[in-house]
C-alpha cells in the first residue's frame, strides 16, 4: 500500500512505482528501457482515465480529503500576489483553522478568507484539522466587514470537516458565531465568491459560504453532515458512509444538477493533488471571470440578486 | 424493583397481577426529572410544567402557540406548504415514508407552525417548531414557512417570535436543508432593515443548524429553564474531546452564564414577558 494513494488509486500507484524504478535504472541498462517506460506511462494514463471516469460519491469524498490535496494557503501562494495575512478576532484570540488577509488578484485588491488544514502532524494539530472555533468565524466576520468598508470583494475557500465540536467552542458561542456570519454575509454590500476546494462540512462550511457565486472543485464535496455522521445516525453505523454519500448527493456534479452550485471547476486528471499548479490555474481563471461579471453590477442589483438567490433555495413556488 | 427475587417467592399465577399496579396510561404522567406521578388534567392546566419540580416538559407546536396567543383573532400562515422528497432519499427507510408517518403522528405537514395573532392585544407573528415531526428538523418547508412568517411580520409591521425545538438541519434534504440556515438568516436581516424586533425563544432542545442560524439571531434571545441548547450534541463533543462534560453543560443556565442568552423565562411568564419587551422595543404598535 502506498499511503499517498487512496484505495481505489492503488493500481495506478503500482504502475507509477514501476515507472520510477525503470527510469532510475537510467542509461546503463538495456536499450529498450525508454520504450518500456513510455508504454507503462501510457498504461498508467489510460488506467487513471478509466478509474476517474466513473467515481462513486464516496470515492470523491475521499479525494476531497486526500492528504496531498492543496489547501487554502497553497492556492493563495499560486493565485494571488502581495498576500498580507491578518490575524485575530479582536476579542478572544486567533484561530489558526481559518486564515484571512488582503491580497491582489490580477492586480486588484481582494479580501481572502479560508479554512486551513495542516500537512504534517504538528501542523494538523496547530490548524485543528481545519475545524474552526468561534473566534475563527468572528475573525472572518471582522475581515468581511472591513472588505465592505474598503470596497473589496470577498473570496472564500471552503475546506473543513465542520466547526469544532468542543466544550470551549460551546462556551464561546459556536452557534452564534456561525449564525452571525450567515446574517452578515447575506447583507454584505460587496461581491462574495465562495469556492469549495475540499470538504464542505455543514454549518462550519456555510459560515464562510453565503455568496453571489458558488463554485466547487470537481472532486470536492458539500453536505449538511459528513457521510460517516449521516450513516451513524440514519443507518445506525458509520460503515454505511458510502451509501450515505450517495444518498446525500454531495458531489459537485450532483449539486450543480440540483441547481445549488453555480459552477464546477475542473481538476487535472487524477485530481488536484497530482498537480497543484494546474488546479490553481483552473480556480484563478474562474475567479477572474466571475469577479469581473459581479463587479460590473451596481450594488443594489448585487444585493437584490443575492437575496433572491437565498430565498430560492429549495423552494420554487 | 427487580423481580428476580420476588419471582422466586411469588406463586406463578400471582406474577401477572404485579403488573396491574402500574399507572394507567393516559390519565397519569411521570415527570422525567423528579419521577412524580402527575394527574394529566392538572398538568395540562399547569402548561405541562411539573408542579413538583418545575420541570418544563416538551409540548407540541400548536399547543405552544395556543398558550402564547390570545384566543381571538388568530390566522394560520402558509398552512398549505407540503414537503417534497427532491433527492428520493432512502436510508433504512424511505424519506417519503418517514414524512408520511410523521404527518400521521403529528397532524402537521412539516415541522413548523406559523400564526398571526395578538398577545394581550399586541399584534405579532409567531412560529413554533414541532419537535415530534422528525425531531423538529429544518428542511425546505420549515425554511420557507419561516420566511413567509417573517414577511408577514414585515407586511404588518409587527414583531416576530419564534419558539424553537429542533435537532438541527434535516439530513434527508441534504444540502437543501443546509441552505435553509442561510435563507432564514437572510430574512432576519430584512426584518432588521425594517426595524422590527425578532424574539427567539429556545425550548428544549435546540441544536445544530437551527441553533447556528435563526435561533441565535434574536434581538433578544430567551430560553425556558433547563433547556438543552448547543451547536454540537453532547455525545459528539464527548467523543471528540474525550473528557467528561461539566455539570449543567449546554443547559439554559449555562448559556446565560456564558452570554448567549438575555434571559431565562418560566413558561408561565412567557406571555407577560414578551408583551412587556415588545411594547418597549416597538411602542407604536401597542394596543
Structural description of this entry:
The complex is a heterodimer of chains A (317) and B (287). Chain A is globular. Chain A has 317 residues and is of the alpha/beta class. The mean pLDDT of chain A is 94. In chain A, helix 4 crosses helix 13. Chain A is 48% helix and 15% strand. Chain B is an alpha/beta fold and 287 residues long. In chain B, strands 3-4-5-6-7-8-9 form a seven-stranded mixed sheet, sandwiched between helices. In chain B, a hairpin with a 2-residue loop joins strand 4 and strand 5. The longest helix of chain B has 20 residues. Chain B is globular. Classes of the chains: A alpha/beta (317), B alpha/beta (287). At the A-B interface, helix 7, helix 8, helix 9, helix 10 and helix 11 of A face helix 6, helix 7, helix 8 and helix 9 of B.
Number of strands of chain B: 9
Nearest-angstrom radius of gyration of chain B? 21 Å
Shape of chain B: globular
Low-confidence residue ranges of chain A = none
Identify the notable features of this structure and list them briefly.
heterodimer, A: 317 residues, alpha/beta, eight-stranded mixed β-sheet, 14 helices, 8 strands, 15% strand, globular, B: 287 residues, seven-stranded mixed β-sheet, two-stranded antiparallel sheet, 11 helices, disordered N terminus
